[in-house]
Amino acid sequence: MEYYFDELLVVGQTIEKLKNSIYQMYFEGEKAERLDEIYKSAQYHRYALGGSQRTYWDILSQITCLCEFFGIKKIDINRKGLENWITLLDNAPNSYKWKDFESLFANIEKVFQFAKSELEEKISLLEEEEKDRLNEAFNCYIQELNYSSIVMSVSAIENRLFSLMISKYPDKKLEELTLGQLIWEYTHNKERYGNIIPEKHEPLLYYCNNYRVFSVHPKKEKINRSNATIILGMSCSFLFDKNMKTKTEK
Question: Against a cut of 0.85, is the pTM above it?
Answer without folding.
Answer: yes
